[in-house]
Write a structure and sequence with these properties.
With 384 residues, the chain is α/β, with parallel strands linked by helices. The protein is built from ten helices and 13 strands. It has helices at 22-32, 134-144, 180-193, 210-217, 232-240, 290-296, 298-304, 321-327, 333-353, 355-383, and strands at 37-45, 48-53, 56-61, 79-82, 91-94, 100-104, 112-117, 121-127, 166-172, 198-201, 221-226, 265-268, 274-277. A six-stranded mixed sheet has the order 10-9-8-11-13-12, with helices on both faces. A five-stranded antiparallel sheet has the order 3-2-1-4-5. Strands 6-7 form a two-stranded antiparallel ribbon. Helix 9 (333-353) crosses helix 10 (355-383). The longest helix has 29 residues, at 355-383. The N and C termini lie far apart (80 Å).
Length: 384
């Protein structure tokens, strides 16, 4: 299988293939004056990281960089400043991140976990070896589309050249769906819940769609996200043209795989671009993703603006445009249920860290409780 020959960065800087540009050079200038080396983190493991620098790949300790702040822990994709004369070597600082993909952890402390940074494309891998789960995909898309400051795609720096990462849905193992009509219907189903998002069937076995995906990822940094067994590492190997990432066969019974990839790895593609392969995700918790939820369910939010009451809960209110769409069949019940579920989850996450939000939720609960008691009393009065 062959890929189109695409241009690589023309800069002669040794870090150019890893995404180094004039804006990163400007951001690093103060640290260059201190004799530090620029580098990009290609792997993090147990408090240490591999950093590619103009002097080659260095192993550096990350403890110096705010280790107690989960949002500032060194992550694959970060640009950093390394002290080349230390013993051991230390990462001295992170350059301001342009973007970062963040999910909430399973911890009861409501912390965010940064999965990849300074990314331009988010490839959500969905295996066609198992039944399509639209609800899970909506969750991934909500995170991918949350692009403003503090959201799942966290813009935490003011570095020039930053732009919102673009999501793309990859239907991997498309060779397992040989019927063209069936595959077309699956693409249409996903396009209906992913407004404006490219949906691309790909197969590492036959090469279907890989020329298109190669062209997409040739510009900038891309990250592969998805469940274990979705074929991320196999796809990475195919794009690289060699078996760099270890892979194992998924179980036939449910299509799930074991966590062969245990660390996030940054790989330079032979035809341009950088790819970050990630371990399979067991859970995808939202992290302040209200903006993304609104974009994924834009048709519901458009309908909500037509409701009679501006604070309509879309439950039993008269003049509710959302319920009207449910009744006439233009809005699937599943979509509304998924929308409500993600909004509630996101609200709980935000409330854990936002006192004002907690107060608003408590006030809303009290209001609904009072309305429920009043309705019950009125009902009892009519019975008498």
């Amino acid at each position: 299988m062959s890929f189109p020959i695409l241009s690589v960065p023309s800069s002669s800087h040794p870090l150019a293939p890893y995404g180094w540009d004039d804006d990163w050079a400007a951001a690093f200038a103060p640290y260059a004056e201190q004799g530090l080396l620029p580098g990009r983190v290609v792997r993090v493991d147990r408090g240490q990281c591999d950093v590619i620098t103009p002097d080659g790949t260095l192993r550096a300790d990350t403890a110096f960089v705010v280790p107690r702040d989960p949002m500032r822990i060194v992550c694959t994709g970060d640009w950093v400043a390394v002290d080349p004369h230390g013993d051991p070597l230390f990462v001295r600082t992170l350059l301001p991140r342009r973007t970062a993909f963040v999910r909430s952890t399973s911890s009861q402390r409501s912390e965010g976990q940064v999965l990849a940074t300074n990314i331009d494309h988010i490839a959500i891998c969905v295996s066609l070896a198992v039944e399509l789960d639209l609800g899970r995909l909506e969750r991934f898309l909500a995170l991918a589309m949350s692009s403003s400051s503090g959201d799942a795609l966290l813009r935490d720096g003011s570095a020039a050249g930053a732009s919102d990462p673009q999501p793309i849905v990859l239907l991997t193992k498309s060779d397992l769906v040989p019927d063209v009509a069936t595959l077309s219907h699956l693409v249409e189903d996903i396009e209906s819940i992913a407004p404006g998002v490219q949906v691309l069937p790909v197969s590492s076995a036959t090469g279907e769609g890989l020329d298109v995906f190669s062209a997409v990822v040739s510009g900038g940094t891309s990250v592969l996200l998805g469940l274990s067994g979705a074929g991320k590492s196999t796809l990475a190997n195919t794009l690289l043209g060699e078996d760099v990432m270890t892979v194992r066969a998924a179980r036939d019974v449910d299509g799930k795989g074991r966590h062969t990839t245990t660390t996030r790895n940054l790989l330079v593609l032979p035809h341009g671009g950088v790819l970050i392969d990630t371990p399979g995700l067991r859970g995808v918790g939202l992290w302040d993703a209200e903006q993304g939820v609104g974009q994924v369910f834009s048709e519901i939010e458009d309908l909500a603006r037509q409701c009679r009451f501006h604070d309509c809960a879309h439950e039993a209110e008269p003049g509710c445009a959302v319920l009207g769409a449910i009744e006439d069949g233009t809005l699937p019940v599943r979509r509304l249920d998924s929308y409500r579920k993600l909004l509630r989850e996101n609200q709980r996450i935000v409330a854990k860290t936002d006192a004002r939000m907690r107060s608003e939720i408590l006030r809303d609960w009290k209001r609904k409780g009072a309305e429920g008691r009043a309705a019950m009393q009125a009902k009892r009065g009519r019975v008498r």
